[in-house]
Amino acid sequence: MYGIEFVVQVKQFFATRGGLANVRVINLSSNGHGCDSSYEVGCMEYYKEIQKAGDNGMLFVASAGNNGIDISMAASYPASFSAIFGQTNILAVASTDNKDSLAWDSNYGATVVDLAAPGVNILSTNISGGYQFDSGTSFAAPHVSGAALLVLSACDQDTASLRKLILDSVDPKPSLSGKTRTSGRLNVSRAMNKCFQQVIANAVRSDSHFLSPVPYSLLPDWVLNQADPRFSFVFEDFNFLGNSGGHTVRVWLATEKANPSNRYLDFMDPDKGAWTGWKPVP
User: Fold this and answer.
1) E-assigned strands of the chain?
2) Which of 94, 155, 158, 269 is most buried, judging by how many CB atoms fall within 10 Å of its CB?
């Protein structure tokens, strides 16, 4: 609890000093059953700190715990705070093995735990030095935290949107049906694709050629091309459905590897049949 308060104060302190500590994600591997329906004082203080983190733009990723129980029936904190208070900055994470099955000791809960992530035999650092394989929801939650930070490196998202994007990107797994809210396991690639789709869609729609409001749907099939080693490239077809009928716009998004905030678009003008030239993403 005091660690959360420290992070919040550090972010607030540096907010007026160039934002040098713009913390967006807190990962917490902790769980317990000390807070019951009476909402003890300590429990409420714990929740208020997580709420404060959310008010300061931080996603809170919590391990679900390793008791092998349904925490919809026996609450475990901080993972259960989201279900009890409807807090929108918490992601509760269960653990899966390499066959996408729920780990035998992972807590779960169809109304409490949001998603699962790999947490069995995960190579990690050892407190005594070196590396070792470990298991538990404490090793699943960091996968989600890392995915969230990777998305933020490419897309500007508020906390609620970031949380929704990650949940909307999971791989549904039969083994997780009735075990998590999404019945799914983290899919980092799909989360990044959704992120890039938003970047391209916003940029194309802001271009003067497409100022008229036109509903559109995205065609699938992303293609990566390493044409320039300084950039990563993503290609996408957009199907615009306007009053005069539908037409497809072909779009390239280039992201500078050394500085992912530098992104450029080039797309095929449907009237001229020619590429418009690279433009900075607004």
Assistant:
1) 25-28, 59-63, 90-96, 115-118, 122-125, 131-134, 171-172, 184-185, 216-218, 223-225, 231-242, 245-256, 263-269, 274-275, 279-280
2) 94
Q: What's the first-to-final CA gap in the chain, in angstroms? A: 39
- pLDDT score recorded for residue 282: 62
Q: What is the CA radius of gyration of the chain?
A: 21
List of the chain residues with pLDDT < 50? 37-39, 208-226, 241-245
3-state secondary structure of 58: coil
SS3 43: helix
Query: Domain 2-186 carries which CATH code?
Result: 3.40.50.200
Which residues on neighbouring strands pair with residue 245, listed in sequence order?
A: 242
Residue 274, pLDDT score:
66
Partnered with residue 279 across adjacent β-strands are 265
Joined together, the tokens standing for residue 102 give 């729920």
How many residues are recorded in the chain?
282
Would you say 191 and 151 are in contact if contact means Cβ atoms under 8 Å apart? yes
Residue in the structure block whose two tokens are 């940029």: 203
Token pair of 94, please? Answer: 């269960």
